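Consider the following assembly input.
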Amino acid sequence: MVQSHMMRSNRRIVITGMGAITPLGLNVADTYRGCLEGKSGVGPITHFDASTFPTNFASEVKGFDLARYISDPKRFEYCGINGKFGAAAAEQALADAGLRPNDPCGSKADRTRFGLYLGSGEGITDFDGLITNIVNALDSTGKADAKRFSENCLTVFNPLHEAEQEFHTTPAHLASYFDLQGPNFNCLTACAASAQALGEGMELIRCGDADVMLVGGSHSMIHPMGITGFNLLTALSTRRESPQKASRPFDLNRDGFVLGEGAAMLVIEELEHAKKRGAHIYAELVGYCSTADAFRVTDSHPDGRGAIACVKGALADAGITPTQVNYINAHGTSTQVNDRVESLTVRRVFGEHADKVPMSSTKSCLGHMIAAAGAIEMILCVETMRNGVIPPTINYDTPDPECDLDYVPNQAREATVDCCLSNSFGFGGQNTSLVVKRFAD
Amino acid sequence: MGGGPVRRPTNTKVMSNRRRSVISGLGVLSPLGIRRGPVWEAIQAGTPGVKAISTFDTSSLPVKVAGVVTDFDPKMYMEKKDRKQLRMMARPIQLAVAGAWLALEDCQVDKTTLDKTRFGVLYGSCMIPSELPELAEPGKLCVIPGERVVDTKKWGVEGIPAIQPLWMLKYLPNMLACQVSILHDAQGPNNTITENDVAGIMAFGESLRILERDRADFFLVGGAESKVNPLSLSRQCLFETLSQKNDDPEGAHRPFDQARDGTVLSEGSAVVVLEEYEHAKKRGAGILAEVGGFSAGFDRARDGKGLARVIRQAMERAQVSPGEIDHISSHGQGAPVTDAWEAAAYQEVFAGHTIPVHALKGQTGNMGCASGILELATAALALSTGIRPATINCPNPDCGIVVTSRHATRMEKPCVVKVSLSQLGQVCVVVLKAIH
């Protein structure tokens, strides 16, 4: 897949700030600790009455209050919840990096060379408004009358709330609030979105379009339309009797993923730029690749065609061999197809070495944060390298003969980890792999 | 009129280590027609594309005009075996797929010769509106008429089963690029930029960077959107500055004109082929223009200063000076405030030069993320034919700028600057150069 590196830039990219709002905690440390302790963030859905839905549970963020992070939360009042999660995680990451507009380094930084690349989801549809507007406009033939429907929309919908549903609002709010005047991107490639945002954000620095980027994702699909859509696709676990056991990646009895929500943000920076201002360097981002399965909208390619090319491409981009990888943070959604194809992919790329590389799915604890998943998983890779403890795949009870790798079952494991691979595979066939390394000058 | 292609810029120092990118094809479905030929004819003729909305009853809405793609039969733009996929595609996805089909046809590539792993697909994409009939059935079961809440308890039991299983896939924004990659076996980089009106050109910029770093040779880059339906239009009426010149549909979208009163919603699909120069040359492709440079940023104050900076950067990267620019292919939202800060940027960057501004939206209305791509392609067509396109609906330019004349004229300079922006401040710029 990868042909040559003659165009490869020699600019190195390091991670200098991290922030997270997740079902296991309202910061990075609590989230990582929760994963190590094998906690599950899953519980009954509280955002709306989902008691009769095939899936009535999810991994929700708990106790979140934007005012604890942002001095004037009012300006985010009408944002979708993804915008609010995003603002809080961005504040944490930028504060951690010392690059908020008023921080000593932040005020000296060239804000025009400071961009943003998010995988941020949609605002939340006014479900009651939309459905009742339709029903209240039905004519005698059972069709929605356009005139009455439009009338209903104009009176029922809240203009500010509707405006905030548009996809470009979160990246615009964050750029405006944190004074990020560089390139401003948002992508939405389903479950791969924030991993792709990290990768493309890294490339923007590599090629000289920016020196610093805020990258990450924010999302919540725990709303009636989201659960309805995924339930119809039979993608979600329906293990209603034991929700905390529902996300069980690589286990033989897995039956689908569990929706999570939240945000994860990182500050990534050109190495010399970081060194010059004396920044704390967490890790170095060294490899990225994105490919398409080009197979089906509903399933991954059964032989892992796109995924294999993607993992190989990311390792080549990092200039490393499979034996140098000490830990893989799996996409590991807990669906039948994903977990089988991902295991096969790692087996194909890593050969015999696959047995020696621990690979865990932190979605077993956090659930699937969809567009925000890739970014939180990168943060967990960084924490794993820093602390030397690999988070487990919880709920792993019965091995699946088709998933035959070391999934770090149920117990966190101490290990020296210097290099991690993180995979994200999006619904519709987008594959993204990232490689992160312990920083060495 | 006309008069042959434009000369190549003189001081183009082609950086030896940079892979060159060219535009070599266009697929388009727009209010001005379908396919490159008819659309380019209409652009040269200055044909208005905005009409009174006739596809649904707009009598309760303040806005009754739009640009619509007429005579669109999605089945015509896909192989017979693939047509069953259409039930999984909302209208913007169908338009996207048709645009890709037309782009491949237009660039005359033999698909079997492409390296699939270096064939990328990037789209700009926006919110895809729900189709009302699909939600009417479950809605009826779960709402008491006259009430304003849904009984979600009932929805869980009766509502959900009343919807088709693949419902969600019709509306996911990444399905434009996904469906195109599946239909054409494009296994290379694939991304979906969701950023309102700038999404198309941002997708183009990202494709350019991927191509430059040698991760792909051939891209379909597009945008497709449809806001001409009761749900999108009423939502937009709530928060967008829309033109209410309902008694003059063809004159409703007035970019930069003193009498402008808002944008006109429209629909369409535009897809360009972005190709590595040697790759295009080797297969004997008809090259429309070379891509000189790209830059993106955020105009935080929305006063044009940020946009001016980004324009300068793009020109620097393209090694192009103001004297080499024939015209600016503008965003031209048609809204009072946005056009003013866009124009302020032009005044700042091009002070001392009289560079006319082209605003295609006067003809097409605002096709959202598809407009950026069609405008870029129009600039490429201008460079390849030497014809500078006309701007309609701007007899009295505001904000101290000059627009291209009401009739197409001859190009004089070898470069065009394409600007795209969102009303919240996201901006991006592409510089195109004549190839000859």
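The first helix of chain B runs from residue 36 to 45. Ask yourself how this observation constrains the way the partners meet.
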